[in-house]
């Protein structure tokens, strides 16, 4: 399991941090994904917050057929993350496979790509 809103960054209160451990925030993630490229992206969020004072992060899982399951929990085929800071945004679309953080730049996409794939109004 991995966090969408990461526990390390949500530390305003014990209650807020505890909410990061709700299953709605923890879809299945492969260890080689969670501990590498996704962790690197979380670190980048924190660096941007330190530099710009505040960031808004929208993250989520994406599913493509055929969907696999662990019990009743669907396993995402990819994850997205959009980080807004000031008048700028960075978006990432990352396949749910083992990837090194050094490859993160290869998965940077326009925000409109995330909008088109997810159907969300970001």
Mean pLDDT: 92
Total count of domains: 1
Q: CATH class, please?
A: Alpha Beta
Low-confidence stretches: none
Output the helix-strand order.
Answer: HHEEEEEEH
CA-based shape: globular
E-strand count? 6
Report the structural category: alpha+beta
Helix content: 25-40%
Using the 3D structure, state the CATH architecture: 3-Layer(aba) Sandwich
Strand order of the largest sheet: 1-4-5-6
> End-to-end distance, in Å?
25 Å
- Amount of beta strand: 25-35%
**CATH topology call:** Extracellular Endonuclease, Chain A
CATH superfamily: Extracellular Endonuclease, subunit A
What kind of sheet is the major sheet?
Answer: 4 strands, antiparallel
| CA radius of gyration | 14 Å
- The helix tally amounts to 3
Q: Helices, strands, pairings?
A:
Elements: H1 14-19, H2 31-52, E1 56-62, E2 68-70, E3 73-75, E4 78-85, E5 88-95, E6 108-109, H3 111-118
Antiparallel strand pairs: 1-4, 2-3, 4-5, 5-6
Overview in brief:
This protein has one domain: Extracellular Endonuclease, subunit A (Extracellular Endonuclease, Chain A, 3-Layer(aba) Sandwich), CATH 3.40.570. It contains three helices and six strands. The protein has helices spanning 14-19, 31-52, 111-118; strands at 56-62, 68-70, 73-75, 78-85, 88-95, 108-109.
Report what the structure shows.
The protein is α+β, with helices and mostly antiparallel strands. The protein has a single domain, classed as Extracellular Endonuclease, subunit A (Extracellular Endonuclease, Chain A). Helices cover 30% and strands 25% of the residues. It contains three helices and six strands. The chain has helices at 14-19, 31-52, 111-118, and strands at 56-62, 68-70, 73-75, 78-85, 88-95, 108-109. The strands form two sheets. The protein has a four-stranded antiparallel beta sheet with strand order 1-4-5-6. The protein has a two-stranded antiparallel ribbon with strand order 2-3. Strand 4 and strand 5 form a beta hairpin.
